[in-house]
Structure to design on (353 residues):
């Protein structure tokens, strides 16, 4: 690999509230591992979000989107403020980025790390380490449906779940490749006994893709999967599922592995026809913004997913291990406490090599 192929332009979209606080820490961590692992990161600042919207009226101007298309990855904090009506930024920025950049996989890893209390008592770290691969562009979130006779007794509202063979296949293919790199477990979660049309498509396509990849496809109905995730999470390695089930299961996964502060995510374009977006699962947390109490772990772990996606797997592992190590030693209460502890661990790792 040449030196130049290991130079990355990353857009930093800090957003609002604690978004800038946590992504600042993540950025520092990325710079530290870039230096020690020998690659170059050029950051491009992207001031979108509630503050930008309230001062300019712009959510995602065309010029900003064009700039974003050119970068190698996007690190996002969180957007949102009580002063912006719900939906404006979600639809205008987050969902629009998913559509424009074809971010068809939502990646949500859940790992119980030493020192972390998850929602289930008595689990050992190691008994809970799975990844949810959620289809991110279709299903019930595709926007198909409508309302007729609104406001009358006969008002009717429909939401249709759109599932295309191509859309299902590319998502399952990503999940199968991920499973092959992990422990080889691939579970399809759906509700095929009731949702017989979409379920049949998902089942056939997942079966074909798994067979091609040499994997045995496991299957669980979504309701049973909720029970297993709590009772016996060790049975899961990679879960692949549709947009709605994935949305719900991912939050269960976050609760099981220590909550919003530590949960990372990636919105991926696995075909690499454009950048992918990495962001902690939490929002802008206006209730604690500015107090110095934001936990940056979810942002740092999101940066780790980003480095892995860029092919910098050692640097990604450095960040992941650093977060585990800080959590294992008793997580700091403050953002600066986290920053200091992460820096100390990362520098010690460099020294040890
Ligand atoms: P939230 O995730 O911002 O906060 C929920 C609760 O968790 C709050 O009590 C907060 O203090 C706490 N919390 C969240 N992250 C934390 C962290 N890193 N460290 C310590 N505590 C943390 O969700 P909420 O309150 O529903 O939404 C606040 C704003 O964020 C809204 O405007 C919402 O639309 C937006 N939002 C944006 C998202 C995004 O940008 N992808 C995702 C979720 C919400
Ligand atoms: Mg959600």
């Amino acid at each position: 690999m040449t030196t130049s192929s290991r130079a990355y332009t990353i857009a930093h979209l800090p957003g609002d509230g604690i978004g800038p606080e946590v992504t600042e820490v993540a950025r520092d961590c990325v710079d530290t591992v870039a230096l020690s692992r020998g690659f170059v990161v050029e950051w491009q600042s992207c001031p979108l979000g509630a503050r930008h919207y309230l001062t300019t009226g712009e959510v995602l101007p065309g010029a900003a989107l064009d700039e974003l298309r050119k970068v190698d990855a996007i690190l996002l904090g969180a957007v949102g403020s009580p002063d912006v009506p719900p939906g404006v930024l979600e639809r205008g920025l987050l969902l629009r980025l998913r559509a424009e950049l074809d971010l068809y996989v939502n990646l949500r890893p859940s790992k119980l790390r030493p020192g972390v209390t998850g929602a289930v008592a008595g689990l050992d770290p190691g008994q809970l380490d799975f990844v949810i691969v959620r289809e991110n562009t279709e299903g019930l979130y595709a926007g198909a449906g409508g309302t007729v006779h609104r406001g009358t007794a006969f008002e009717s509202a429909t939401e249709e779940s759109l599932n295309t063979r191509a859309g299902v296949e590319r998502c399952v293919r990503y999940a199968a490749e991920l499973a092959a790199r992990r422990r080889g477990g691939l579970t399809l979660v759906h509700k095929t006994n009731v949702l017989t049309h979409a379920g049949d498509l998902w089942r056939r396509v997942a079966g074909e893709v798994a067979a091609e990849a040499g994997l045995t496809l496991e299957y669980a109905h979504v309701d049973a999967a909720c029970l297993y995730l709590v009772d016996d999470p060790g049975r899961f390695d990679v879960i692949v599922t549709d947009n709605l089930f994935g949305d719900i299961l991912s939050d269960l996964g976050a609760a099981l592995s220590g909550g919003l502060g530590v949960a990372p995510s990636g919105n991926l374009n696995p075909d690499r026809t454009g950048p992918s977006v990495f962001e902690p699962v939490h929002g802008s947390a206006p209730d604690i913004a500015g107090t110095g109490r934001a936990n940056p772990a979810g942002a740092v772990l999101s940066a780790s997913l980003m480095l892995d996606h860029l092919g910098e797997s050692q640097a990604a592992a450095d960040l992941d291990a650093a977060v585990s190590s800080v959590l294992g030693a008793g997580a700091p209460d403050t953002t600066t406490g986290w920053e200091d502890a992460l820096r100390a661990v990362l520098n010690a790792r460099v020294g040890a090599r």
User: Anything to note?
Assistant: Residues 247, 251 surround magnesium ion (ligand 2) (CB under 6 Å). The chain is about 45% helix and 20% strand. The longest strand covers residues 7-15. The two ends are 21 Å apart (CA to CA).
